[in-house]
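Thread title: Can someone regenerate the structure for this chain?

I was given the following input by a collaborator and told the matching structure tokens would be attached. They weren't. Posting the sequence so someone can regenerate them.
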Amino acid sequence: MEENNIVSFEQKLQKAQELLKELSNPEIALTKSVEIYKLGLKELEEASQMLESAKVEFEVLNKPAN
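Best answer:
Regenerated them for you:
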């Protein structure tokens, strides 16, 4: 896996955490909270895809040679 993928994965998790903090603000408008929620879902989905890709790569690397 490329080094920049690791950084991007970490950044996506960090961004999702920041968005979650924003959603915790009781003063936030409903429309803004929906927008933030959508952004958070996007970040987490992309991070999940990166994680799945890394999992497949590990499985290939650990597959015994025949």
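The chain has a mean pLDDT of 91.
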